[in-house]
Amino acid sequence: MTLAVAVAICLAAPTEPAPASNAAVVLARTLLSPEQYSATLAMVRKQITTQMGSAAADKNEMDFIEKVMEKVMPTYDEMIDFQSGLFAKYYTPAELDELAKFYESPVGKKTIKIMPEIMQDAMGFMNERVQRQMPELMKTIREREKARAKKK
Hints:
This protein is 82% helix and 0% strand. The chain has 152 residues and is mostly helical. It has 2 domains: 3-104, no CATH class; 113-152. The longest helix is centred in the C-terminal third of the chain and has 46 residues, at 106-151.
């Protein structure tokens, strides 16, 4: 994922969550453990440093990135509050109970465990495709801009 895409995702306007029920909070904590959230933040840091290239080797730059991330990224509890509000918004109490049962099952536990890898693979696939097709896309955009400029 490029830094621009990561920033765009981070800056995307979130939907308003509903007031969270206890079942929604339990589900949110089941799906996102503190360790998983820390791993997610580490992945974001890695993506940022990859985009920074050689500048990432500079300790001052890394310290700066850490301070920025601490300031802009939600805490674990803030993320749980938000996510549980979304669950309450999109699922009925009965559906939340069904989801909780599923995620307590062996397949549900496996899903929780491997979902970060699945998402990382999917994002890698998307990123590779965008990068592979970017030259053609940029060519098309330049040609369109030239055509527009000629019409003016």
